[in-house]
Write a structure and sequence with these properties.
Chain B is an alpha+beta fold. Chain B contains eight helices and seven strands; from the N terminus they run ββαβββββααααααα. In chain B, strand 6 and strand 7 form a beta hairpin. In chain B, helix 3 packs antiparallel against helix 5, helix 5 packs antiparallel against helix 6 and helix 6 packs across helix 8. By secondary structure, chain C is of the alpha+beta class. In chain C, helix 3 packs parallel to helix 6, helix 5 crosses helix 12 and helix 14 runs antiparallel to helix 15. Classes of the chains: A mainly alpha, B alpha+beta, C alpha+beta. The complex binds flavin-adenine dinucleotide, protoporphyrin IX containing FE (2 copies), iron/sulfur cluster (SF4), FE3-S4 cluster and FE2/S2 (inorganic) cluster. FE3-S4 cluster (F3S) binds next to helix 5 and helix 7 of chain B. FE3-S4 cluster binds next to helix 5 and helix 7 of chain B.
């Protein structure tokens, strides 16, 4: 126990939790996108609603939901903790710092992009998850989604947030593997290829949804 | 060549310090950055002012003493060189050059551009060695080490302990420095016996000293005068994971 | 005073063994009662501190650097010798012994050199076990290369950074002992004096370079491993802060200083560019394997090197030494380069350089292979001079590189002060009048890992120690002497900077006590140096206070000592009326301009005793006997 707690409290240990929770969240994104793609099916949301219904009622999914939320919170809490620790390590800033000469912006902006995603999540989960579970009004999930996305402001907010998510993952996805020590030339190539799915294709998939409802409904 | 210098001056540890502007006149293009400072200092002494204090010794990029932020870059704008190897021909005539000490909580400023990097020594004392007494070693050729492994270990071992990685890292993280030693001794068979303790102790000392955590921005690799690769950080992480699971 | 070198009797192969057997031992449980101060953390100091601590002694280690790892040993490039005979080319302890004695031009002690050759194999074992990443072959075994002055491949190396890797190895051993609590390490401390109690070395006075405070340390024995004094010449390949203060202060307290005039000038360094220049950079000896050295045949030829046709070039080393060509030993190559420049054939803006040309080698082997072999050196040259050595010949010139002289020590490495041991470049022991490449690293580590741990115990076990403390008169009086000296330096408040004095001293040394020395020049130096010293003490300007970090004050103390040591160096050079190794007296040369040794009159170590300020030092002779390697004149024709 002692050993585990020192492990988890060390900076490297915390980073490892960050990367594992981050990758776990990435895997959720895949499933989430997969289900949401049914929104595009021209059946007035029938298939989507089947899934939504299943998600909401199948009992074995409750613990998974809790793990998912815990994952988010863990990831965010440790992210903030590390951010604070890192700030303490450099309290005096440089008068001149040409950081762009030595490191990509995405890597330096993870805290900001992560925080933006976090704010998005609160609003997003409130709109769909909280409203449908705790304040059901009888409308189907499909109608709820279609309704929410009628608002251009809400859509713009989504697209911006997904942009942040994309930027967060542009650094985060490959970074997680570096943190887990997976990085030789062959592995690098594979990771960088898969990373494109996460920071480009998945966000495009998500971003298409608000636009689809705005323009085609 | 002529330059305007904007240099951090701080009398001692407790002084608040601030920037002071100096003119550096008639500097030969072939002079090194430190020689340029020598010229400025000689003038200051003649005027009865205290010269700018900075650490230096070998002046050929190997002792790791020198190190300063030059125009927002650790060891100046060129890759793969220490400040002492930087030549003034890398700048334009009449440039303004901002010179600052390394900034990180574990590297307190002692005076002007001189910082205290003894935290690095304490990390090394926490396990950056192989426990072998003088006289107890087997024949040097008793354990063959494949050339590729030896070469990679050398790449890591080339670290000069200058602290540019910490200075450049937005998190003030010492991971590149620590990983260089961990990686060297993890690669070589001679270091194997103590692998788990070594990585655990060195990391815990690194945290105690107050260095930040690595967020893989890789600025360290870009500014390291010995161009040590962040792949060594990956190996450190792996060592740490293994030690934790084992 | 008679110098007792304590060389054991018996056949040379058995001397070290029988000596070790005869040395008294300190009981393991008693070791922690003894307290040893090791000054310096270079190869010699770090290895000594670590191995003494491993034995159980209480060790205090200090250096003026910020970290032990920054000691000047870090800069050594080429390699370290050991007669492992891994190359199966006929190497042996005896051959390394022979080469070193001969390379030193028969001015070193046979017994010491034999022991050095004997223990050097264990050094490699030790370093490999510490994780030093020596170069290896594809089979995984250690690689060797050849170096000047030897016909076998016995040099172990770690790219061009052997010194760095060996020092980091010794540093790691030191770290381990600090971790174990056996060594207390104090960074940024400069030893300014030695304290003697009843004639024994019992402590030191050091200055904390951060706070400026003077501190007193007590102990039972002091080990100095403080490096060489090459910076007497101002410009050298030494690190900027390298200095002789610790050794010189010990000398003033009674330790004899041996052979100060034996200084080594390395032929291939990047030449001086201008007055701003602060140090000289070495270009490894290995470049002479493929580079060809030449000057224009016409005096003061200002054409660009590539515009000078082949027929108008003088490849003078190939012309003068047809069999060794560009690979003559360091001293010969250096002297010939100087001669060419003095005669007006020098190149570059200052006329103080010769060409080292890779054009032929590139034509023969291709740019790629040359890059593989020498890439990092050529890049370094490019970085420093802004010229591309793949296209334009390099300009090189000799520079002061190493000092063979140093504090006189006996076979146990103890100086003439009981309890004061001196290791590494700071002592005079093993290289005679000329050091072979890759032998200094070997000597430093041999002294620290494998000699001092045995010999110091004998002294500790056989000596009665009265308890001392920092309030004793011996300590307080030395303390106040140091204090007074610092006050005096600060209070001069003249007009010239410390560097200006150092540069002036360097110029005198280089012009009159440099590569070619003669009676008139040395006498001139002996007038100029005391004069400069007087000016120093009446006109030096040091700003800032002594209660703070003050680089100028640090430098001033060191230069003040160089100003005394420089004089002794010139005096020794004047007295030695022969040419040998790095000491070349123009009066004593053969018709072809080669060094002419005088074994009949000068086969001895000249050990100088300090007689007081303003008094002529007294010379003592330790005669050298060569029972195994019979002296002969070197020839490289
Ligand atoms: C450029 C260059 C290349 C070289 N290449 C080779 C090579 O390839 N092979 C080879 O064998 N040799 C080589 N040499 C020579 C070799 O590096 C040195 O002779 C050797 O490293 C000296 O080691 P040392 O331990 O005696 O002293 P140093 O390494 O000089 O250490 C001196 C130590 O003493 C401390 N010190 C000094 N004075 C004081 C004081 N007053 N108070 C407190 N601390 C003090 C310093 O802080 C430092 O820690 C080279 C030398 C140079 C300059
Ligand atoms: C833009 C397109 C998106 C749409 C249409 C969408 C739709 C939905 C819907 C309908 C739900 C409710 C599911 C249920 O309760 O059964 C939901 C929940 C959720 N969404 Fe999204 N979402 C989108 C983007 C995102 C993004 C980009 C993220 C992550 C950063 C995200 C994270 C979540 C989470 C964490 C939940 C709650 C957990 C769950 O019920 O599965 N969503 N989303
Ligand atoms: C769908 C949501 C999210 C996903 C998929 C995700 C994914 C990741 C991944 C993979 C990493 C890399 C871990 C590593 O460097 O080893 C990471 C890092 C990080 N994430 Fe997230 N994250 C998400 C949301 C958040 C949120 C809500 C925050 C809120 C603060 C956040 C903050 C951070 C921080 C601070 C880091 C560390 C930065 C770094 O290591 O470079 N992330 N994230
Ligand atoms: S890793 Fe590079 S930047 Fe960091 S201390 Fe070592 S040499 Fe300097
Ligand atoms: S710059 Fe800093 S964030 Fe990591 S990769 Fe290097 S330590
Ligand atoms: S002074 Fe030694 S690395 Fe720059």
């Amino acid at each position: 126990m002692n050993k585990t707690s020192t492990f988890l409290q060390s900076s490297v240990g915390k980073k490892i939790i960050m990367s594992l929770s981050g990758l776990f969240l990435c895997s959720f994104l895949v499933i989430h996108l997969y289900i949401n793609l049914f929104l595009f099916k021209q059946d007035n949301g029938q298939s989507f609603d089947v899934y939504a219904e299943f998600m909401a009622t199948y009992p074995l999914l409750r613990p998974i939901e809790i793990i998912l939320f815990a994952g988010f919170i863990l990831h965010a809490v440790i992210g903030v903790w590390l951010w604070l620790q890192n700030r303490r390590a450099r309290p005096v800033r440089y008068k001149m710092n040409e950081a762009s000469e030595n490191s990509p912006l995405a890597s330096r902006a993870t805290f900001i992009t992560g925080t933006a995603v976090f704010i998005f999540l609160i609003i997003h989960i409130n709109t769909f998850f909280v409203q449908s579970r705790f304040f059901p009004t009888g409308i189907t999930m499909y109608e709820r989604v279609a309704g929410a996305f009628q608002n251009p402001m809400y859509d713009a907010f989504y697209i911006a947030a997904i942009g942040f998510l994309s930027y967060h993952l542009k650094h985060g996805f490959q970074s997680a593997f570096q943190t887990l020590g997976i990085r030789n030339r062959k592995q690098r190539f594979l990771i960088d290829t898969i990373a494109v799915i996460f920071w480009l294709f998945i966000p495009i998939g998500f971003a298409a949804m608000p636009l689809y409802f705005l323009w085609f409904h | 060549m002529h330059f305007t210098l904007n240099v951090w001056r701080q009398k001692n540890r407790s002084d608040t310090g601030g920037f002071v502007t100096y003119a550096a006149k008639d500097i030969p293009a072939d002079a090194s950055f430190l020689e340029m400072l020598d010229v400025v200092n000689a003038e200051l002494v003649k005027k009865g002012e205290e010269p700018i204090a900075f650490d230096h010794d070998c002046r050929e990029g190997i002792c790791g003493s020198c190190g300063m932020m030059v125009n927002g870059r650790a060891h100046g704008p060129n890759r793969g060189v220490a400040t002492c190897e930087l030549r003034m021909r890398s700048f334009q005539d009449n440039d303004t050059i901002v010179v600052e000490p390394w900034r990180a909580t574990p590297f307190p400023v002692i005076k002007d551009l001189v910082v205290d990097r003894s935290a690095f020594d304490r990390i090394m004392q926490a396990g950056g060695f192989v426990s072998v007494k003088a006289g107890s070693a087997p024949d040097a050729n008793a354990i063959p080490v494949p050339k590729v492994i030896a070469d990679e270990a050398f790449d890591a071992a080339a670290c000069i302990g200058c602290g540019a990685c910490v200075a450049a890292c937005k998190n003030g993280s010492a991971m590149l420095f620590v990983s260089a030693k961990i990686s060297q001794l993890a690669l070589l068979p001679q270091g194997h016996a103590e692998r788990p303790q070594r990585v655990e102790r060195m990391i815990s000392q690194m945290d105690v000293e107050g260095f930040g955590a690595c967020s893989n921005t890789e600025a360290c690799e870009a500014e390291c005068p010995k161009e040590i690769s962040v792949s060594h950080i990956a190996r450190l992480n792996r060592e740490y994971l293994k030690a934790g699971l084992g | 005073m008679t110098l007792n070198s304590k060389i054991p009797s018996g056949p040379i192969e058995k001397q070290w063994d029988s000596h070790r057997f005869n040395l008294k031992l300190v009981n393991p449980a008693n070791k922690r009662r003894y307290h040893i101060i090791v000054v310096g953390t270079g190869l010699a100091g770090a290895s000594a501190a670590a191995s003494l601590a491993e034995l159980g002694y209480n060790v205090t280690s200090l250096c003026y650097h910020e970290s032990p790892r920054r000691a000047h040993s870090i800069a050594a490039q080429g390699g370290i010798n050991a007669p492992k005979n891994y190359a199966n080319d006929g190497d042996s302890v005896y051959r390394l012994f022979y080469d070193t004695i001969k390379g030193g031009d028969y001015r070193a002690r046979e017994a010491n050199v034999y022991r050095l050759a004997q223990v050097s194999g264990s050094i490699i074992d030790q370093c490999v076990a510490q994780g030093v990443p020596f170069a290896r072959e594809y089979g995984g075994l250690l690689d060797n290369r050849s170096f000047g002055g030897a016909q076998v491949s016995r040099t172990f190396y770690a790219r061009g950074q052997t010194g760095q890797q060996l020092l980091l190895g010794a540093y790691s051993a030191l770290c381990r002992q600090v971790d174990a609590g056996q060594v207390k390490f104090f960074p940024r401390r400069e030893m300014l004096d030695l304290v003697l109690v009843d004639g024994q070395a019992r402590g030191i006075i050091a200055r904390d370079l951060v706070t400026g405070k003077l501190e007193t340390y007590t102990c039972d024995a002091v080990v100095l491993a403080t490096g060489g004094y090459g910076n007497t010449f101002y410009l050298s390949t030494m690190a900027k802060a390298s200095n002789a203060t610790a050794a010189w202060r010990a000398h003033r307290r009674g330790a004899l200083f041996a052979n100060p005039c034996f200084t080594q000038i390395h032929p291939t360094c990047i030449p001086v560019g201008g007055a701003y220049q602060s140090k000289l950079t070495l270009m490894s000896e290995s470049l002479r394997n493929d580079g060809r050295i030449w000057v224009p045949k016409k005096k003061s030829d200002t054409r660009a090197p590539n515009d000078i046709p082949e027929s108008e070039r003088d490849y003078y080393l190939e012309r003068l030494y047809p069999s060794f060509g560009n690979l003559v030993p360091r001293d010969v190559a250096s002297r010939r380069a100087k001669e060419m420049c003095d005669n007006g054939y020098g190149v570059g803006q200052t006329g103080q350089a010769v060409y080292l040309d890779f054009a032929d080698a590139i034509k023969r082997l291709g740019k790629e292979i040359i890059g593989e072999k020498y890439g990092n050196l050529l890049d370094m040259y490019h970085e420093i001079t802004g010229e591309d050595p793949y296209k334009v010949p390099m300009r090189i010139y000799p520079a002061v590189h190493y000092t063979m002289g140093g504090i006189w020590v006996d076979y146990n490495l103890m100086s003439t002060i009981p309890g004061l041991y001196v290791l590494g470049e700071a002592n005079f022991s093993d290289h005679g009048a000329n050091r072979l490449g890759a032998s200094a690293l070997m000597q430093g580590l041999a002294d620290g890992y494998f000699i001092i741990p045995y010999t110091i115990g004998d002294y500790l076990a056989s000596t009665k120690f009265t308890p001392v403390n920092t309030n004793d008169a011996a300590f307080t009086s030395t303390f106040s002497e140091v204090e007074q000296r610092i006050k005096k330096l600060i209070s001069v408040n003249g007009k010239r900077t410390v560097d200006e004095f150092h540069r002036s001293l360097g110029k005198i040394m280089w012009d009159y006590v440099g590569m070619g020395r003669n009676k008139a020049g040395l006498q001139k130096a002996l007038q100029l140096i005391p004069k400069l010293r007087e000016e120093f003490w009446s006109d030096v300007k040091i700003v800032g206070s002594s209660n703070d970090m003050n680089n100028e004050l640090e430098k001033a103390g060191r230069v003040a000592d160089f100003l005394e040591l420089g004089e002794l160096l010139a005096r020794d050079a004047l007295h030695r009326e022969e040419s040998c190794g790095g000491h070349f007296r123009e009066e004593y040369q053969t018709e072809e301009g080669e060094a002419k040794r005088d074994d009949e009159h000068f086969s001895y170590v000249a050990a100088w005793e300090f007689a007081g300020d303003g008094k002529t030092p007294v010379m003592h002779k330790e005669p050298l006997a060569f029972e195994y390697v019979k002296p002969s004149q070197r020839s490289y024709k």
